[in-house]
């Protein structure tokens, strides 16, 4: 029998049952793909992270991510959760850990402050695809339950990625954002066609000077109808806003706070930082709080 030390962590919040929940197995050495998939299905979070010992001298460990139905290459909130769990489990001081992911070795900074932790995640290389044609745009908008008049005309609909791609859809109204009731089957079918499983609908309609955007993220193609607070959406959003010159920035840096999860009562905040060279994003980081909901052992 192997005892797996397992955490449930809420990311991007300090309040339990808010933010985005993730499972974390901190001692996953010896698990095979089938076992990880079964554990992820049992915990039934949008993602569960599995931490392994390093397999080479150039990293401090290996991390893999599973939804209840499939493995994904990278995940923002599950990374925050995994590093937070590891910091608690090992009573770490402030440090930077390099973990091997499916998109390469990434540095994750653990920041200790007053006996608690924040996590700073450096994401993968930013990529921005061309805007979709009129046919796909129309079908996507219809599937999301939007009208053409709801769109923010400054925001092209296109795929942005820092390792796990999302479609960016800017709209005018937060009221409309919270009223959305998408056709999940239509979105899932469209995901196969565009080779992207996530749709991030966002708005600048904020009544808080510290919050630039509100968003909702739908990924029915991988079994996640709605994700509460999404690192791999808000991070790429920063690059998208910079590269499309939708926002102003100074000193080659753009920083903002994105809020997500309002509609489904899992509110959380992501701090996004974009480093810029020649008016293009060259490095994207997200920073977040987390809180332990429970720690348990699974015997298999």
From TrEMBL:
Which residues participate directly in catalysis?
A: 47
Source species, domain of life: Bacteria
Keywords from the named record: Isomerase
Example of a GO MF term: isomerase activity
What Pfam families does the entry give?
A: PhzC-PhzF
GO CC, sorted alphabetically, is: cytoplasm
Isomerase recorded as keyword = yes
Q: Which PANTHER family match?
A: BIOSYNTHESIS PROTEIN, PUTATIVE-RELATED (PTHR13774:SF39), PHENAZINE BIOSYNTHESIS PROTEIN (PTHR13774)
Would you identify the family this protein belongs to, as annotated? Belongs to the PhzF family.
Which named protein is this?
A: PhzF family isomerase
Biological classification of the source? Bacteria, Pseudomonadati, Bacteroidota, Flavobacteriia, Flavobacteriales
């Amino acid at each position: 029998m192997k005892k797996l030390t397992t955490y449930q962590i809420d990311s991007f919040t300090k309040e339990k049952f808010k933010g985005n929940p993730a499972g974390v197995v901190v001692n996953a050495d010896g698990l095979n793909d089938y076992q990880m998939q079964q554990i992820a299905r049992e915990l039934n979070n949008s993602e569960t992270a599995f931490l392994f010992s390093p397999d080479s001298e150039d990293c401090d460990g290996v991390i893999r991510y599973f939804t209840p139905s499939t493995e994904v290459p990278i995940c923002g909130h599950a990374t925050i959760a995994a590093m937070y769990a590891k910091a608690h489990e090992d009573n770490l001081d402030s440090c930077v850990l390099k973990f091997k992911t499916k998109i390469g070795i990434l540095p994750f900074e653990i920041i200790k402050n007053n006996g608690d932790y924040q996590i700073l995640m450096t994401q993968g290389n930013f990529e921005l695809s061309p805007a979709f044609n009129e046919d796909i745009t129309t079908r996507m908008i219809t599937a999301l339950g939007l009208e053409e008049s709801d769109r923010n005309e400054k925001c092209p609909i296109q795929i942005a990625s820092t390792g796990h791609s999302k479609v960016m859809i800017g709209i005018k109204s937060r009221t409309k954002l919270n009223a959305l009731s998408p056709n999940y089957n239509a979105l899932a079918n469209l995901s196969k066609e565009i080779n992207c499983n996530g749709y991030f609908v966002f708005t600048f309609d904020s009544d808080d000077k510290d919050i630039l955007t509100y968003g909702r993220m739908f990924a029915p193609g991988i079994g996640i109808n709605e994700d509460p607070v999404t690192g791999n959406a808000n991070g790429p959003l920063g690059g998208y806003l910079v590269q499309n010159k939708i926002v102003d920035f100074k000193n080659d840096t753009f920083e903002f706070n994105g809020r997500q999860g309002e509609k489904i009562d899992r509110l959380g905040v992501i701090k996004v930082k974009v480093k810029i060279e020649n008016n293009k994003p060259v490095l994207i980081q997200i920073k977040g709080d987390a809180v332990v909901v429970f720690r348990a052992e699974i015997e298999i």
